[in-house]
Amino acid sequence: MVAQLEHQFRFGRLSLQGLWFYCQPMMRSMQALSIVIQKASVNNISGSAVLNLLQSQAKAMAGDNAVRLMLEKMTQCASSAYMSILERWVYEGVIDDPYGEFFIAEDKSLQKESLTQDYEAKYWRQRYSLKDGIPSFLANIAGTILTTGKYLNVMRECGHNVQVPPSENSKLMSFGSNHQYLECIKAAYNFASSELLNLINDKYDLTGRLRSIKHYLLLDQGDFLVHFMDIARDELAKKPDEVSVEKLQSLLDLALRTTAAAADPFHEGLTCVVERSSLLRRLGTFNDLEVSQRSSTDNDLEETVSITGLETFSLSYKVHWPLSIVLSRKALAKYQLIFRFLFHCKHVDRQLCGAWQIHQGVRALNTRGTAISRSSLLCRSMLKFINSLLHYLTFEVIEPNWHVMYNRLQTANSIDEVIQHHDFFLDKCLRECLLLLPELLKKVERLKSMCLQYSAATQWLISSSIDLGDSEEPIDSVGLNKAKRKSGQVLKSTTKNVAVTDSVLKFEKEFNTELQSLGSILSNNSQAEPYLAHLAQWILGVKNEQNGL
């Protein structure tokens, strides 16, 4: 148009009316360009904002085909450099953005090593993030673009150089109404996702690591635990500040080497940890758990029972990149909370078994109608309670949820799905193990505390009732055999002593009251929390059996 006007002007044939006539065909296009330039200048926009402006103006001029085609051509030309940045990101995982125009930001201060220390796993969520100003034609697929580059970066951090295989139609130099660029991005995502998943499962054996953690932190493999609790009994009985973590670690290594756990190729990653607070207090400070109330009652158990290594001992697991993406610090902390609860339940069970053996040792004596007989029934009820609780935790909660998670992991299509299934498993186990229900957990802890106090008092109860000839001699296997040999002897008069009988009755009354209270709370909450119905059946079964006895 300009050339035509200049030609007419040079020959002296350009009048004002002619100028207006020759400008008419381009008037709408010039007006559209004027609007674009004005908006871009006033708002001082650049990068994706320019692309959004051009595209929005092209849509606004849909009725004028010539203007629309011009603006679409401008949009494609302007997006050429932007699409080349996008192409490097989705095909190589590299941000080549010298002017900061790309919609993905990189925070280089976050390193992959932080995953083993950071509860929030900021590296995975914030190392690469979406910025404002996403081009409108990429808005619906921005999350997929971000994830594709993240997966490629993980593989590069592992030293596994991988690039999406190019194809004839894989270039992202332009976009149009055929949406071919969207298909290219989706193909790149599928490739990066499957490659990373195969790398973590095949080379780093994620499933094997999870199974190993289940053996130890969820007490799936019991022989090493029994051996460890036997050889570490004295050390764990000390106060937390006095416990030697190095000694516990050496004892743990010994237990692992001398049991079936030695066949596990990943057992060397297991380490010992001694916390400084009780389980209830730890749950109260764990920022992600749904503990609705914190009050002075959190100290109830700590006032009645001195905290020892048995209450604060935990296991940890050394996790390295890239498995730390799934087994982050937060995930391991949740495993440790479940372990501490299970471990202490096992400890209570062992103590009650010891008390039961003492009672069994005096069966040869005629204890009918005595405090020993009543104590024996109480011991049986406590054992039934703790065994029912352990059965619920292991066979009703952990095992079925583990199998559900395992099956879901086999069909997962991306590492993010793996993380989601794994976190869902841990959160579900925490809740169904009562660790997110403080009212119920406090009841259970109080019952366990009573069981420990009773088992500690058992030797005094028996020794106060039977004369073994030496009041200083403990009720061990030798003493019990001696009692059996003297089965005809007369029980000491203290069998009917008020102090002994009252002690047994006091234990029995407090235990029954707490057990009944727990059963009532479980039954009332079972409609809102259906999984509590299973535990209520076991607990109420203990109470009914005791009432029958």
Automatic annotation (TrEMBL):
Compartment list: Cytoplasm, Cytoskeleton, Microtubule organizing center
GO molecular function: gamma-tubulin binding; microtubule minus-end binding
Primary location class: cytoplasm
Gamma tubulin complex component C-terminal domain sequence ranges: 206-536
Highest taxon above the source species: Eukaryota
GO biological process, one term: spindle assembly
Keywords: Cytoplasm, Cytoskeleton, Microtubule
Domain Gamma tubulin complex component protein N-terminal: from-to ranges: 1-203
GO cellular component: gamma-tubulin complex; microtubule; spindle pole
Cytoplasm keyword on record: yes
Known function: Component of the gamma-tubulin ring complex (gTuRC) which mediates microtubule nucleation.
Similarity section: Belongs to the TUBGCP family.
Protein name as it appears in the record: Gamma-tubulin complex component
Source organism per UniProt: Vigna radiata var. radiata (Mung bean)
